[in-house]
């Protein structure tokens, strides 16, 4: 439903969301380097969308999602330790580094 609404009402913004997702993906890849035993992998779908995935150990995904939620970062566990983050109209560009900082704080606590 959200994608359909975006196509109908904010088509010109979709490229911005994809660009922000690319920035977030690069930041997530940095987390994989900084926390190699905690952040296992980062990926974006191909073709590029506004979704970004970070993989942690499966037994830690839900606790990380809960901790992020407590910090105001809403993400979704998708199975196998993957956590999905989505950029959209309500996620301004200046928030992206703060989202990454929240993920880093959670990874430190794992």
What does this structure look like?
By secondary structure, the chain is α+β, with helices and mostly antiparallel strands. It is 48% helix and 15% strand. A four-stranded antiparallel β-sheet has the order 1-2-4-3. Strand 1 (41-43) and strand 2 form a beta hairpin. Helix 2 runs parallel beside helix 4. The protein is globular.
Strand order of the largest sheet: 1-2-4-3
Summed up, the helix count is 4
| Count of extended strands | 4
Provide the gyration radius in Å. Answer: 14 Å
* Secondary-structure-derived class: alpha+beta
The rounded distance between the terminal residues' Cα atoms is 34 Å
Largest sheet: 4 strands, antiparallel
Return the average pLDDT rounded to an integer: 91
What is the ordering of alpha helices and beta strands?
A: HHEEHEEH
pLDDT below 50 for ≥5 consecutive residues: which ranges? none
What is the percent of helical residues?
Answer: 40-55%
Mass-distribution shape = globular
């Amino acid at each position: 439903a959200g994608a359909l609404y975006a196509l109908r009402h904010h088509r010109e913004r979709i490229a911005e969301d994809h660009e922000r997702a690319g920035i977030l993906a690069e930041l997530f890849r940095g987390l994989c380097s900084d926390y190699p035993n905690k952040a296992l992998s980062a990926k974006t779908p191909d073709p590029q969308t506004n979704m970004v995935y970070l993989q942690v150990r499966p037994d830690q995904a839900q606790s990380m999602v809960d901790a992020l939620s407590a910090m105001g970062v809403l993400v979704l566990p998708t199975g196998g330790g993957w956590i999905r983050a989505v950029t959209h109209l309500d996620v301004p560009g200046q928030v992206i580094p703060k989202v990454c900082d929240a993920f880093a704080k959670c990874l430190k606590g794992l």
